[in-house]
Design brief:
This protein is of the alpha/beta class and about 240 residues long. The chain has one domain (about 1-235): Metallo-dependent phosphatases (Purple Acid Phosphatase, chain A, domain 2, 4-Layer Sandwich), CATH 3.60.21.10. Helix content is about 30%, strand content about 20%. It has eight helices and twelve strands. The chain has helices at about 15-20, 40-50, 60-65, 75-90, 90-100, 125-135, 215-225, 230-235; strands at about 1-5, 30, 55, 105, 110, 140-145, 150-155, 160-165, 170, 175-180, 195-200, 205-210. The strands form two sheets. It has a six-stranded mixed beta sheet. Strands 4-5-6-10-7-8 form a six-stranded mixed beta sheet, covered by helices on one side. α3 (about 60-65) packs across α4 (about 75-90) and α7 packs antiparallel against α8. It is globular, with a radius of gyration of 16 Å. It binds zinc ion. Zinc ion (ZN) binds near residues 34, 61 and 146.
């Protein structure tokens, strides 16, 4: 089985379309939450994911947009964008978001937004947090997002190590792994191109991929929607 793994699309249709055009042959498309929030096209992104047959989990922004997650921890710009999103979501999008599970587990893969022990909110940013989370899932691989930074944490011989992956690089998954594809719609690792990965179950590899997209098209839509200026500007810097 080959999975395309996308996360943190954040209502950025231009970035999602570019990733779709870039996809190699795959069997399934998985999305690790934060489908909406920050960006200008929540309804269009959800309709596109439905057409693509994506299998998704819920992120903190998705829950906040439909009122099932408390946005109290959001910074002012994120909160403004969520309020805008909540006001513009159509019935189809609301129904889609409300049906998202917090955890998806199939074959040898678990998928969450934040972490397996706290799927909505926890950020896995260090080997110590990764180590604590290895006990919270029982498959070989756990896919996660939320930090918007591509990374692999692997446990071999009782040691947990972190590896950052360069674009086009295939990382061999030996031992149990926590794998983050980075963000499609709002990368934060200094590279503004859309980030995703292809997980190959047969070769046990994760191939990290980057795709250029029309950032200005998304920025124009954000300005037209009256979304916070800083949220549009950061897309150009990948921060
Ligand atoms: Zn996010």
């Amino acid at each position: 089985m080959r999975f395309a793994v996308l996360s943190d699309i954040h209502s950025n249709l231009s970035a999602l379309e570019a990733v779709w055009d870039d996809l190699p042959q795959i069997d399934e498309l998985w999305v690790l939450g934060d489908i909406v929030g920050y960006g200008p096209q929540p309804n269009e992104v959800i309709a596109a994911l439905q057409q693509m047959g994506a299998r998704s989990v819920m992120g903190n922004h998705d829950g906040a947009a439909i009122g099932t997650v408390d946005p109290g921890d959001f910074n002012p710009d994120a909160a403004k964008a969520i309020a805008w999103t909540a006001g513009i979501l159509d019935g189809n999008a609301r129904t889609y978001l409300a049906a998202l599970p917090e955890v998806r587990r199939e074959q040898a893969v678990t998928a969450v937004h934040g972490s397996p022990r706290d799927p909505i909110w926890e950020y896995i940013t260090s080997t110590s947090v990764a180590t604590a989370n290895l006990a919270a899932f029982d498959t070989a691989v756990c896919l996660f997002g939320h930090t918007h930074v591509p990374i692999v944490f692997q446990a071999t011989d009782g040691q947990v190590t972190a590896a950052t992956a360069r674009p086009g690089e295939k990382v061999g998954l030996v031992g149990r792994s926590l794998v983050n594809p980075g963000s499609v719609g709002q990368p934060r690792d200094g590279d503004p191109t859309a980030s995703y990965l292809v997980l190959d179950g047969e070769t046990a590899t994760a191939e990290f991929r980057r795709v250029r997209y029309d950032i200005e098209r998304t920025q124009r839509a954000m300005r037209a929607a009256g979304l916070p200026t800083r949220l549009a500007e950061r897309l150009a810097y990948g921060r």
